[in-house]
Amino acid sequence: MLRLIGRRLLLMLPTLILASILIFALAEVLPGDVGRSILGQYASEADVAALNRELGADRPLVVRYAVWAGSFVTGDWGESPILEIPVRPLVMEALGNSLLLAGFALVLIVPISIVLGVFSGLRRDSWMDRTITVSTLSMTVIPEFVSGVVLLYVFAVWLKWLPVSALPPDGSPFYDRLYYLILPAIPLMFLELGYIARMARVGTVQVLAMPYIRTAVLKGVPRSRVIFGHVLRNAMVPTVTVIGSQVGWLIGGLVVVETLFAYPGIGKLMVDAAQSSDVPLLEASVLMVAVIYMLANLIADIVVALLNPRIRKGG
Amino acid sequence: MNEPRSPYGSDPDLRAEGMELGADPEMLELRADAAAAGGAQDLAADSDLRAQELQADSAAALEQRRQRRYLIKALLRSPTFMTGLVIVVFWVFMALFSTFITQSPTATDPSVSLKAPSPAHWFGTDDLGRDVLARTMAGARTVLIIAPLATLLALLWGGIIGLVAGFYRGVTDEVIMRLIDVLLALPIIITSILILSLLGKGTAIIIVAIGALFTPVVSRTVRAAVIGEREREYVMAARLRGERSAFVMSREILPNITQPLIVEGTIRLGYAVFTAATLSFLGFGLAPPSPDWGLTISVERIYLQIAPWTVLFPAAALASLVVAVNLITDGLGRTFSK
């Protein structure tokens, strides 16, 4: 098991390097002449060259990349030229907020979608099955800001069951924070619901067709034990795998939901940095998202391995 | 890793069936015919054989046409496909002609700002007194320009890359697929924000960005389909005839993978609508006063408490389009895999 984790961590490295090269290329290479873009089109060639030398922008790309990546690894993330504060604490705080929201959403997503999926799998091809499948899949394909505004209207404006804002007043206890996060978490849940429920449904249908289920039923094992002991457990593996592969969508969803609810997470920070062309902040937040993205994929793989003895032993 | 989901389209068994589309016995026979016809060409020194071959060709063509007619009939009977199609056709019609039917989507009138739906303004008015019905109908235009063009770009690039990678295999395949994976090192929405914020906004850039980011997934699908085809007799026959690789790829293999390509195209179209709308909601798309749905929801959402109609109608419109495209995908996938 440890070997599996170690190997996966090593495999993460090249992907992370690729992601950082992509970010570097987009942020530092494509905009072209750094000195020229700072000094404007009327500056003299000599001034531009001098500034480029001072900034290190005249060095070869490989060196520039190494310096850029090196400063990130050593924790020097630079300062935001627009907000004029160090980037790192800003990103870290936003990241914490996002993890809370994403974690809360996942806690809601997993049991609900598995229950729905297993339920419709057990009642395959009934009208309940069709209703669940069609409605969860529709929720999944509708953009999260669309479901978000509709939910905001229904539950916060019309019924007034939930608060409009995503953050409680300062000094509120922790459970209050979660209460304020219910509304933002639902669009995130919708985003994943259809897909995960569908996997759980397919898993259930497949498991139900297995001979050992027939054996268990014929042996007189109670239905509840068949479902909880066999069906649920085996339907979990494909479901968890899918949850792992959906992390990218969850992150994309965070960007949108945080913007919609004005929640100070990493997604909103990234959008704000992009809108105000705050390159150091943009780079740092995108890079952190890349790290989280890969770690989340790793965790999903480990959970799958824990659920499936064949991978666990073989790894 | 970042395999974008394809909600309706990628039921695992459905996908698997899609991959085996070519295994349909009728299609196999058809291919054997075509291969026989192709193989005969080598020997066709005299006109007699040529005539026979022509006959075989036209028989195969006839068969193909019959198949196509059958598929279209099946699609017309599919309720999911037809529902989706009707809604999409409605929005295409509105995108083209709504300005002739409704009031102006951009004319402002401060005297009727934020009025609730009424006989004069069926969907109410927004903060600048613009008619929400007119804006909702005209809002289809931008997304219906961006999404299909981006999808076509992705199909073109992904098609070429997938054909080349799947046809040559080996080192070429390895290198191409690794390079392509770089684009998927980050979630798609993140990469597109990065691209749009650094290269500038604008419809053309959005189309190219979405097209480029969807290319890896399309090329994977095409590659898988090509690998399924390249060992078949008709490809062998074409190669033995001494056809150039480009000819074999474009004229022999490509026509035989159109079904998975069409399904993939509609799946991507759904995502392209989703992504384009999301980007314009986040402020990386068009600028006001465009009636674009994502932009309108983003701009008008501050009035959600006092004038919800300014937001809810565009939201419903966007939801209907996305669901409709996915219904089409679902209908196509089911019909093709039958």
How do the strands and helices of this protein lay out in sequence?
The complex is a heterodimer of chains A (315) and B (338).
Chain A: H1 2-29, H2 34-39, H3 45-55, H4 61-73, H5 87-122, H6 127-141, H7 144-158, H8 174-208, H9 211-219, H10 223-245, H11 247-261, H12 266-275, H13 279-307, H14 309-314
Chain B: H1 12-19, H2 25-43, H3 47-77, H4 79-101, H5 132-138, H6 140-168, H7 170-182, H8 188-199, H9 203-229, H10 233-240, H11 245-256, H12 258-281, H13 293-300, H14 309-337
Give a quick rundown of the structure:
The complex is a heterodimer of chains A (315) and B (338). With 315 residues, chain A is mainly α.
What fraction of the residues of chain A are assigned to beta strands by DSSP? under 5%
Based on the structure, what is the oligomeric state of the protein chains?
heterodimer
SS element count, helices of chain B:
14
What is the helix fraction of residues of chain A, given as a range? over 70%
Per DSSP, the total helix count of chain A is 14
Largest binding interface between chains: A-B, 53 and 50 residues
Average of per-residue pLDDT values of chain A: 82
Gyration radius from CA atoms of chain A, angstroms: 24 Å
Rough shape of chain A?
elongated
Main sheet overview of chain B: none
Broad structural category of chain A: mainly alpha
H and E string of chain A: HHHHHHHHHHHHHH
Structural class of chain B: mainly alpha
Which parts of chain A are unreliable, with pLDDT below 50 for 5 consecutive residues or more? none
Low-confidence stretches of chain B: 1-45
